[in-house]
């Protein structure tokens, strides 16, 4: 068997697919001939992405604007995608929110906001899509983060949320595996030019310090993460489920390291100054 990278005739749904890493994933599936559906809060971003997906080769592309915190809207949006495109072969759940903040300084609502988007959003998306997943054969990919297994100061909310996301991956790989549905997580490293990277390493110096720490010596690109998603959703990965796959140039083999403290130091010095 060889990897064809051909997703013609497949239906791929990417939630949070209108910018950054997730949009890169959606574009990669579109370029491989799939039918695409994308969603995020902003109708403008959805429209822009749908037009781009058609341009790069999607067999069909549609979108909807909804907030993953609202389970009814998520369910309605996914029902609409199913009516338009049929059973889902691939579901990518990647909507997320992040900001650096020390636990003692952030409000309870700030903590809850990230839990609601990243963790509750994931279960809303997966449960909303459940009736429409192809059986057997569907591939679910949750977009996680290194915070799932590495503690970083200033990231208690994200660490808690993404650890939960990966435990959903592991649990549902068993519960839904018996129906022929595979569930995996992909953990991007620091991906150049993205909103997440800008928020966590806001200065060129911080970015360069991080890059130097990557054993492979370069930032990740959205295509690196997209390639992992194409592989995980292909027949080549038909026995891979319940795994958390890091696409990070081996950065996180070094643990939280300097970066684990960097944001805390930055936030404390901002408080003093
Ligand atoms: N530091 C501390 N608290 C913050 C904060 C920050 N930088 N940014 C927001 N908050 C708090 C707010 O003060 C509010 O709490 P409060 O009601 O007690 O004041 C709470 O978080 C919710 O903020 P709000 O702006 O109402 O949320 P929102 O739903 O409009 O937006 C965010 C969600 C905050 C996550 C926003 O940054 C977002 O939309 N992010 C999406 C893009 C993104 O984060 N990309 C990177 C992905 S890794
Ligand atoms: P991004 O460009 O901000 O992408 C986030 C996407 O989610 C956007 O399409 C956004 O669109 C959507 N979204 C946010 N909140 C939403 C909500 N409440 N409901 C519905 N959609 C929502 O961020 P990114 O940096 O590329 O990150 C993408 C994913 O990779 C995230 O899961 C993140 O945790 C993970 N990750 C990123 C990095 C990195 O280096 N960037 C590293 C590790 C992990 P709208 O604004 O229109 O809603």
Describe the 3D structure.
The longest helix is centred in the middle third of the chain and has 22 residues, at 108-129. The protein is built from 9 helices and 7 strands, in the order βαβαβαβαβαβαααβα. Helix 4 links the parallel strand 4 (90-93) and strand 5 (139-143). It starts with 10 loop residues before the first strand and ends with a helix. It is of the alpha/beta class and 273 residues long. Helix 1 runs parallel beside helix 2 (43-56), helix 1 (20-31) packs across helix 8 (222-232) and helix 4 (108-129) packs parallel to helix 5 (156-175). Helix content is 46%, strand content 14%. The protein has a single domain, classed as NAD(P)-binding Rossmann-like Domain (Rossmann fold). NADP nicotinamide-adenine-dinucleotide phosphate (NAP) is lined by residues 16, 18-22, 40-42, 45, 67-69, 94-97, 117, 143, 145, 188, 190-191, 194-197.
């Amino acid at each position: 068997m060889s990897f064809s990278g051909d997703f013609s005739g497949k239906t791929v749904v990417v939630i949070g697919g209108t910018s950054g890493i997730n949009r890169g994933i959606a574009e990669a599936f579109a370029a491989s001939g799939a039918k695409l559906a994308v969603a995020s809060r902003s109708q403008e971003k959805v429209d822009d992405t749908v037009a781009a997906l058609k341009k790069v080769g999607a067999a069909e592309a549609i979108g909807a604007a909804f907030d993953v915190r609202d389970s009814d809207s998520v369910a309605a949006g996914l029902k609409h995608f199913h009516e338009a495109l049929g059973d889902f072969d691939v579901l990518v759940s990647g909507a997320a929110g992040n900001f650096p903040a020390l636990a003692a300084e952030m409000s309870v609502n700030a903590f809850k906001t990230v839990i609601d988007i990243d963790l509750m959003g994931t279960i809303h998306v997966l449960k909303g899509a459940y009736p429409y997943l192809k059986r057997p054969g569907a591939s679910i990919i949750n977009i996680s983060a290194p915070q799932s297994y590495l503690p970083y100061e200033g990231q208690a909310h994200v660490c808690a949320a993404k650890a939960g996301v990966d435990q959903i991956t592991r649990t549902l790989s068993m519960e839904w595996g018996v129906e022929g549905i595979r569930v995996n997580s992909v953990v991007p490293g620091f991906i150049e030019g993205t909103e997440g990277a800008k928020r966590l390493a806001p200065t060129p110096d911080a970015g360069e310090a991080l890059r130097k720490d990557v054993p492979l010596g370069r930032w990740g690109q959205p295509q690196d993460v997209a390639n992992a998603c194409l592989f995980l959703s292909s027949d080549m990965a038909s026995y891979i489920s319940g795994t958390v796959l890091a696409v990070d140039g081996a950065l996180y083999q070094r643990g939280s390291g300097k970066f684990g403290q960097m944001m805390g130091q930055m936030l404390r010095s901002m408080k003093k100054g």
